[in-house]
Design brief:
The chain has 322 residues and is α/β, with parallel strands linked by helices. The chain is built from 14 helices and 11 strands. The protein has 2 domains: 246 residues, Alpha-Beta Barrel (TIM Barrel); 62 residues, no CATH class.
């Protein structure tokens, strides 16, 4: 597969109103995709709609839309709308989200995340193909829906996966997987789960959202990365993911966090972990590190810029594919 380099918009610290101009630049600079994220910041579809209006070739994707916080039909409607705004260019990423986003922030029971993601994927396949859906899935029921604006071209659906069951779902029923907060070395272990140990699913795409600190000040990069990572590393689904990957060096971090020692937990995250999950350095070093993900089988490495006191607009230009 040919590697496709992506950039996450909006940029941290840059007003949302600048998304259209930044989208033009990203396309002109040779990036192959603009990806949005959805967590506690802006929702993920509106920035892509703004980008769709001012670009003509570049791919547009969301990584990811949680399957709990939008109803299945609303998610299908939103995806169909984006596919109509950018025919043949939109990719839908879906995932379960986390108990923090779903339960604590949205007061929705975070139950059976694998089954909910699987059912949503199956529903979206049918709905976006224009089929009338009247079906009781295991985790929800659709009482008769046909998408009036079903896209002419099939919308690729990528599944965000952390451990084997979700990664296998991404490879068997999805069009591929979206990885997040993962090192290049870990990606080399995860990619075969998606594509099959024998490579039988070699056509499945693997995308990865990669944290980028665009600075040569290693300590500043590590400080910014450590703050963000410590919060994520202690979210239950991510904690189990890193245990599954065999990161025993994080056990002290988890013990301190569970004991309420948040500052000590922050300091306990090893530099080696930060450096593997947050790439930093001069532009050529950033590109070289991104290439490690490509070598590990990641077809679509996508940078997510951190605010480290550098103008992210310039960093976007400096880190452009060569």
């Amino acid at each position: 597969m040919t590697a496709r380099w992506g950039m996450t918009l909006p940029l941290e610290g840059v007003p949302l109103r600048e998304v259209p101009e930044l989208a033009r630049q990203v396309e002109d600079l040779g990036y192959s995709g603009i990806w949005s994220a959805e967590g506690t910041g802006p929702e993920g579809f509106t920035p892509l709609a703004a980008a769709a209006a001012v670009t003509s070739q570049i791919r547009l994707g969301i990584a990811v839309a949680p399957v709990f916080t939008r109803g299945p039909v609303l998610l299908a409607q939103t995806a169909a709308t984006m596919a109509s705004l950018a025919p043949g260019r939109f990719t839908l990423g879906i995932g379960s989200g986390s108990d923090i986003i779903v339960d604590r922030l949205n007061d929705i029971a975070f139950e059976r995340p694998y089954s909910r993601t699987r059912d949503t994927l199956r529903f979206l396949r049918a709905a976006l193909a224009g089929e009338r859906v009247e079906r009781a899935y295991e985790t929800f029921r659709v009482g008769g829906y046909r998408c009036e604006t079903a896209p002419e071209e099939q919308v690729p659906i990528l599944v965000a996966g952390l451990r084997s069951r979700m990664l296998e779902l991404a490879g068997t029923e999805g069009d591929g997987a979206i990885l997040t907060l993962i090192s290049a070395a870990d990606a080399a272990r995860v990619v075969p789960v998606v594509r099959g140990e024998d490579g039988a699913r070699s056509d499945k795409e693997v995308a990865a959202r990669i944290l980028v600190a665009p600075t040569t000040d290693a300590e500043r990069a590590r400080a910014a990365g450590r703050r963000l990572l410590t919060a994520y590393l202690n979210v239950p689904v991510y904690r189990e993911f890193y245990r599954w990957l065999g990161h025993e060096e994080l056990e002290p971090v988890w013990r301190l966090w569970a004991a309420g020692e948040r500052r000590q937990a922050l300091g306990a995250v090893p530099d080696s972990v930060v450096d593997s999950l947050v790439i930093h350095g001069a532009p050529e070093q950033l590109r070289e590190h991104l290439q490690r993900f490509v070598a590990a089988g990641v077809e679509t490495p996508t940078a997510m810029m951190l605010d480290v006191g550098v103008d992210p607009r310039q960093a976007l230009r400096d880190a452009a594919p060569r």
